[in-house]
Amino acid sequence: MPSQDAIGKDPKYGTGSSSTDLLGERRDVWKSKEILRRLYTRWYGRIGQWCSTGRTLELGGGSGHLKEFFPKAVSTDVVYEPWLDAVVDAQTLPFKDECFGNIVLFDVLHHLSCPVAFFQEAQRVLEIGGRIILMEPCVSALSYPVYRFLHHEGLCMEENPLAMTGTTGKDPFKGNQALPGLLFGRFRNEFVERFQRLKIIQERKLDFFVYPLSGGFHRPSLCPDSLFSVLMGLEHLLEPLSRFLAFRLFVVLEKT
Questions:
Q1: Across-strand partners of 172?
Q2: Structure pTM?
Q3: How confident is the model at residue 168 (pLDDT cuts 50, 70, 90)?
Q4: Alpha carbon 8 to chain centroid, angstroms
Q5: What is the 3-state secondary structure (H, E, C) of the chain?
Q6: Domain parsing of the chain, residue ranges
Q7: Is the pLDDT of residue 115 over 50?
Q8: What is 11-255's CATH number?
Q9: Nearest to 87 by CA among 70, 75, 100, 71
Q10: C-alpha–C-alpha distance, residues 57 and 103, integer Å
Q11: CA–CA distance, 54 with 224 (Å, rounded to integer)
Q12: How far apart (Å, rounded) are the C-alpha atoms in residues 105 and 185?
């Protein structure tokens, strides 16, 4: 694990002060946007429902909100922040075998330069029956133009997540939002064959209107707080159309 002075000088640990500023800004946005807190409360509640027993490791902890809901979790990221527990690269985990019951990644998988390296490491450090819990972008007919043209991160549908190599040299704050959908869609059979001990036990496409209208951490909200419950109720009714409308992909894998 690098010293705090080294963070930002090695490209695999982020982009120096700019990444620190970004995470600090996100904490400020979190405090000021009630709709974000309500969305994340729902998402973290879903994560909690699928957590196994044992210690929980969070990778890509960012602005540090998971610990508000799971205070005993070990929260990490590739840059140092005082609210995180450690600086850790998801692709080279500095932990002994079978020491965690859960590994949680929230908007992290699509930032990795080598997803295969992460799943190999996760499979190693998880206990038998332990789980990987992922919340990631979902590219659907509705979300594609938003992610492609309005979002600050990249989107490339031609990449094979299982063929990506190298765990250094990439800015970890840049990503390809198509990766999770490709991994559990077009390349699903290859993933299942390669990681036979990681069984997919839950996969759902979620969030149609409220999430994009919230503006996330980067844009103003277009959804009045008073309409939150109404729109969430509408989303529930439209769940059969999730493959066309979803902005979020929720996946749980269990080590057998």
A1: none
A2: 0.90
A3: low
A4: 22
A5: CCCCCCECCEHHHCCCHHHHHHHHHHHHHHHHCHHHHHHHHHHHHHHHHHCCCCCEEEECCCCCCHHHHCCCCEEEECCCCCCCCEECCCCCCCCCCCCEEEEEEECCHHHCCCHHHHHHHHHHHEEEEEEEEEEEECCCCCHHHHHHHHCCCECCCCCCHHHCCCCCCCCCCCCECCHHHHHCCCCHHHHHHHCCCEEEEEEEEECCCHHHHHCCCCCCCCCCHHHHHHHHHHHHHCHHHHHHHCCEEEEEEEEC
A6: 11-255
A7: yes
A8: 3.40.50.150
A9: 75
A10: 5
A11: 39
A12: 19
Residue 131: the pLDDT is: 98
Cα separation, 70 vs 61, in Å, equals: 12
- Which residue carries 């729109």 as its tokens? 231
Q: Residues 97-125: what's their mean pLDDT? A: 97
Q: CA 164 to CA 159: how far, in whole Å?
A: 8
